[in-house]
Amino acid sequence: MNAGSYYEATAGDRPLRSTLEAHIDAEVCIIGAGFAGLATALGLLERGVRDVVVLEAEQVGFGASGRNGGFVFGGFSLDCADLLAQLGPVSAKSLYGLTRRAVTTIRERIRRHAIDCDAVEGGALWVNWFKDEAILRRQQQWMASQFGVAWQFVGATQLRGLINSPRYSAALLEPDAFHFHPLKYALGEARAIESSGGTVFEQSRVTRIETSSGATRVVTAHGSVRARHVVVAGGGHLHGLVPALERAMLPVATYVMVTEPLGDVLRELIPSRAAIYDTRFAFDYYRGLPDTRLLWGGRISVRDRHPADIATFLKRDMVKVFAPLRDAKVDYAWGGTMSYARHKMPQIGRLPNGLWYGLGFGGHGVAPTTAAGELLAASIAHGEPLPSELQRYGLPRTFRPAGLAAAQASYAWLQLKDRWREIAAL
Ligand SMILES: Cc1cc2nc3c(=O)[nH]c(=O)nc-3n(C[C@H](O)[C@H](O)[C@H](O)COP(=O)(O)OP(=O)(O)OC[C@H]3O[C@@H](n4cnc5c(N)ncnc54)[C@H](O)[C@@H]3O)c2cc1C
Hints:
Helix content is about 35%, strand content about 25%. The protein is of the alpha/beta class. The two termini are about 40 Å apart. The model has no long low-confidence stretch (mean pLDDT about 95). Flavin-adenine dinucleotide (FAD) binds near residues 58, 62 and 205.
């Protein structure tokens, strides 16, 4: 198996960006070059704010943003039913709408900045693992009535023409979704920031933030940035930088593998161009890649896992759906760390000491990070208020390490519930 991720191996040449080695001033300093930080920087530059500096501890896209499944679709880690139950129809629809707009923003940025990121327009198929068709009918009816989105029903026969596996009973197609190479997109965003006048430093971990009235100083090993506004967008990788934020977040890992090129077999098994995920709580997600490999993801854990172990358990999951792939070789396997709040909603706001933050996007973050970037940029540039519906989720404590053990136990419980639903429907 290759070391590193498929995305790293196929991202092409990347420029060597400088490390911060001076004491500089900026209007806005952003900590973290994942999708949240990059989208905030682009949003600011698009609103006419100059002098935007992004500091990245490793390299652009080092975190979850450069390692994820590449699904670009509306919604949050908190599912729509819970969002509706917690906020009511008007607020839930309004927040969901932010993520739908973010999908459009991503498409527009790909076009405007000519970002070559293997984007595939095929929608997302939500395939039913269970026999009970009511799951899909309910969801379809409810996405239309409450969220104003038309998900299309795909019956068993039609689905066989899209996914050649007996595993699923039917599906819903979300037509407005697409999938892409997330690391190429992150690198494209960084290039767009630089060509719009912003600066991105790599290998520049922020080790301290000093806040005082008027300006904040952000310190790295070899330099510092004094800025009027500082945005913390470090995902699950902050490692003690801002305890007030990290107390409210759990770093949780999830996994991806990529097979060897499958040639015609890929299209025989998956004629669909859609990104695919299933109806279980602990779902699989997968998509065909342009070079006929299959990317497969799933599972969460609070532990580090070795690539060989990841390949073993994800391949087992894949073969349950596509038995003909039992001899397919796995060429890449990797994990990534997500940041989760207890309430599973993004944390977007401002601390009493003036620090802005955009964190907690969990396992469904490509569109929400872009939405967060837009909200933060509009607030910083034009003083627009952040949505009150989001503020009410707040920063509840996660009580690590007990919170991590609870997250693992709750995932195991959800897996059990999936199994029970499966047996009950037989
Ligand atoms: C395996 C996997 C699959 C996923 N699949 C999908 C999917 O298909 N679709 C979807 O919508 N979502 C998916 N997600 C979730 C999504 O990737 C994340 O929610 C999103 O990328 C989070 O972006 P971020 O910018 O908040 O964090 P990150 O991408 O983790 O970026 C944070 C960055 O901040 C940097 N940083 C941290 N601390 C410092 C510091 N002190 N100084 C400087 N820099 C710092 C880190 O090095 C890192 O680069 C997946 C996640 C994983 C891990």
